[in-house]
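Could you show me just one protein sequence together with its fold in token form as a worked example?
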Amino acid sequence: MDLKGKVALVTGGNGGLGQRICHALAREGVHIAVMYAQSKDQAEGVARNLAGQYQINAAAFGCDITDGAAVETLVAAVTARFGRLDILINDAAFNKSVPFQDLDSLTVELWEKIMAVNLTGPMRLIKAAAPALKASKAGRIVNISSVAGLGPTGSSIAYAVSKAGLIHLTRCMAVALAPETLVNCVAPGLLEGTRATANLRPEQIERSAASSLLQKAADKDDCADMVVTMCRTDTMTGQTIVIDAGRIFH
């Protein structure tokens, strides 16, 4: 599919990976809605940079994706601003490092927050965006999960379970939204220079990189390029691609 002129909503678009995804799509001529949770100035700066560098339309939109009404308002605002919505990238996420064995620190409140942002949030966004994506006749959804969703690893049990749920949500939504909208997923390994990595313990970062076959972290640009590929495809749906320098095989 030719992406030029399409409109993408990228949640967490001002984050480390989110910005790379925005740039990768903008290089293809995609207009970008940069969604942020708190960092308004940073998100507006990303939007200005995208518009100036790639001669596309870009704007920043604030939203708490744990709030159903706010999500509905967001999708309405994006479609009003750009006139359409073709692509949804669910990159926004939250984590907090809690060793698996420390069940006392894995409070119900933390569990619920991680699930609300990492799993229920994408579900809300997909449901809200589904009519506009269907109307575009070229709808594409890419969810950003994690290798923690494919094995008992990651920053906490709650994070791992939320990302496993997002992988299965990808499959289920691929069934629900076919044939008009394609739904796929990227599962990165350790990514340096992101907010998620900043929340990890130093020994966890070192262990993750050392345990990969390639002895390094995953590459954010590789992940962003895979997102573009999943937006271009006409025949792949319900799939999860791992980019982790060789740690998890599935």
Summary: The first strand starts at residue 7 and ends at 11. DSSP finds eight helices and seven strands in the chain.
